[in-house]
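## retry 2 of 3
previous attempt timed out at serialization; input unchanged, resubmitting
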Amino acid sequence: MSLHTAEQQDLATAIARDGWAVTPPLVPQLELDALVAALAPLAADARGGIRNLLDAVPAVRALATSPAVRSVAEAVLGPECFAVRALLFDKTPDANWKVVWHQDLTIAVRKRAIVVGYGPWSEKAGVPHVQAPTELLERMLAVRVHLDDCGADNGPVRVITGSHRVGRLSGTAIDAWRGGAEAVDCLAERGAILAFRPLILHASSPATAPAHRRVVHLEFAAEALDRPLEWHTQVP
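## retry succeeded, writing output
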């Protein structure tokens, strides 16, 4: 399944206005079952998450190019967009963590280089990562495919609507947003997609009824990085 043109327009409007949107279930159940099976060997040794899925799991690469996911990404970024990173997040009784309020600032690249506007640097699972310029992050989109139902007791992502429009926030500014705006739980059915701008303030609480809360987190962009930097992975 994929979004129709009118649905894509509605999603693009919601992302521009609110910074986030949740679709109805779009990814077929059989495709989700196959994805869970493909991730199982890696997930058995992981605690709460897996990185570098576009390189490690062909089924995730296929998901990034599927009609469902592409219809969401293209609605916001246009037909030339591409996936640049994929991760698995899974809250379980053994990995039931809390995520504090934050913005997603980091991208994965092929190798380090000194470029104005990029930094500081880090390394995650052997891959160089760097905080990107605000202008680039404002033009990216996160697309989360839910492999399980995610209700209020599953530790869903919480967002502060509209916070994506104010750029990169300091710790003090984040505290001010938290105190002055209502947080919204992003509830989703299995196969549904949560799309959001990386700079929206988001967090999550531990699940109160811990079970699998698996999501494949995909990040999309539609432009090259400032040379000599290159995206670590690029799946059109």
